[in-house]
Design brief:
The chain is an alpha+beta fold. It folds into two domains: 76 residues; 74 residues, no CATH class. It has seven helices and four strands. α1 runs parallel beside α4 and α2 packs across α4. The protein is globular, with a radius of gyration of 19 Å.
Length: 180
């Protein structure tokens, strides 16, 4: 009887975690959703729907480095492989943009897939420059909506550089995205 109660309790707790991450996501509290998924990832690492939801929550909260492990887990369905490719593209763009801005690595000849994610849009604009001149700040206009602008800069904090993208709509600040 004790084993049955323990199994029921464990099932209930696992179901609550899935529900919690989903509820946070639905309420657009992506940071909380990402953090719950991160904390309980090992329990659900073989559930591709959970892994995808967790990864999208982390992407929407700009925790891009947390995409690395979900990318390796999303392989059994067509939808999961599509998500893994999407996350891989963004993670690669972040790493290459960082390397270019910090180390001066030339990425002008690269031709990677593009996405609608803000970092991807900025990456594409940055690559099109072809010449970087070690500028401290870059201003880019969105390709589809000319009212949207992005300010790309590099900030050094605690011995590490961070990529900062300020997003503007009609010259009004909308959001700051920080990646390291």
């Amino acid at each position: 009887m004790k084993i049955f109660i323990i199994l029921c309790l464990a099932t209930f707790l696992y179901a609550n975690v899935k529900k919690e991450i989903y509820n946070f996501y639905e309420k657009k509290n992506y940071i909380a959703s990402c953090n719950v998924g991160y904390k309980d990832f090992d329990k659900f690492k073989n559930n591709e729907k959970f892994v995808s939801l967790y990864a999208f929550a982390c992407l929407k909260s700009d925790f891009i480095d947390r995409l690395a492990i979900p990318i390796t887990k999303l392989k059994y369905s067509k939808e999961s492989r599509t998500n893994a490719s999407f996350f891989s593209t963004i993670l690669m763009q972040k790493k290459l943009l960082y390397r270019s801005m910090v180390d001066g690595y030339d990425i002008s000849s690269l031709n990677l897939p593009s996405t609608e994610y803000i970092l991807s849009k900025v990456f594409d604009s940055y690559v099109r420059l072809k010449s970087y001149n070690n500028k401290k700040v870059y201003i880019f206009e969105d390709d589809k909506d000319k009212k949207i602008k992005y300010k790309l800069s590099l900030v050094k904090t605690n011995k590490i550089y961070k990529i900062v993208i300020d997003e503007f709509y009609d010259n009004k600040f909308v959001k700051k995205h920080i990646y390291w």
